Amino acid sequence: MTDTTPENDSLCNSIVIRPEERLTADELRSRMEEREAKKQPDSVEYQHSLLCALTLPRSRQPTREYRRDYQGRSLIIEAGSLWNGQDWIPQPLPYGPKARLSLMHICSEAVKAKSRYLEIERSARAFMDRIGLDGQGNNYRLFRQQMNALAACRFMLGYTKPDGKAATIQANPIEEFEAWVADDEGQPALWASELKLGETFYNDLIKHAVPLSGNAIRGLSHSAIALDYYGLFAYRLHALEKPVLVSWEQLRGQIGQEYKTAKDFKKESLPAIKATLEVYPSARVEQVKGGLMLKPSPPPITRQAVGVSRGLADKVKASLPPPEPELPLSLHPLHPRTVEIFRKRYPRLDPYTCDMDFKHFLNTSATEQPRDYDAAFLGFAKTWAKSNP
After folding, report:
1. Residue 4: band (very low, low, confident or very high) from pLDDT cuts 50, 70, 90
2. Does any domain span residue 232?
3. Long-range Cβ contact pairs of 362-371 (< 8 A, separation 24 or more)
4. What is the pLDDT of residues 264-309, one digit of tens each?
5. What's the whole-model pTM score?
6. What is the total count of domains within the chain?
7. Which domain does 108 fall in, by range?
8. Which helix (H) or strand (E) holds 362?
């Protein structure tokens, strides 16, 4: 009887194996994944190098300002507001995996089209499909909410020039933003349609865009920390000339400042790094005592490299912890009767200023949205009025 085990069958699964080769099951699986990747070409997406080195918040922030510092550079992100045709709607700081994906989408479209102008409605669902996110329903709504937060926020970058002078740059990602003020069901919403990137941000992006694998992003898409490691490795490894040891404390200072200790940061980092290296197999990163050894490596996307297969990406995605639930933002307008009640109770105070603070509370700190917005607003106003005499 002919031996047809994987080690000896020269045409096993249509993969040619020379007689002298004896492949293990893992090696055979790797070859099959390479073949799959060749049959399903990977897409190329982009991220700004600045956001690969200094990352966005990972979780919802209770403040209106966020700061990252690393090696003489500092990034401050300030939350802003968007006009809905009647009022200014406070937006939270962009955070979490969908903020990162939204920014990757904006950067990718701008680099590919070589244009500061983007049609969001046309392109957002296609991008979500490429990276394996459902482009319908709540997933799409949350994706767009993070797009809104990015549109409203302000970026400030500080660094020291070689001549010793300190420089401050305003590099807002989005300069102009157009949105519908109701969703498909007629509910209050800010539904992005078109935007224009800030000129400074766009010009720097074209010079310093970091190419990323679309399928790798697909595999890491619901983990903010894994996306951060992938961006950091993609940005840094190919530029190294020799191995560099980076301690856990240094890594925490760069992308994990919200963790109290390096030990806590390491604990959450290890599974994220493992997933990242599975979708970036050419990355030469080793865990050593006290940190990571980073070695010169090819970038994740090259003409010669075999892309990451969707099968591998989906397998990695399933291995990561599920994403934390996200809340829809409050965009509810005040009823005229509520405004009248407020003015009778607090004649010296502005109801719309109170409403902005109430929306900020709902969009940054509340664990759920109120069923009766106006009643909840008047309850909030009692405490708010005491602190704003």
Report:
1. very low
2. yes
3. 362/329, 362/330, 363/90, 363/91, 363/92, 363/329, 363/330, 364/60, 364/61, 364/62, 364/63, 364/92, 364/93, 365/62, 366/327, 367/327, 368/327, 369/327, 369/328, 369/330
4. 999 999 999 999 999 999 999 999 999 999 999 999 987 545 467 7
5. 0.75
6. 2
7. 44-237
8. helix 351-364
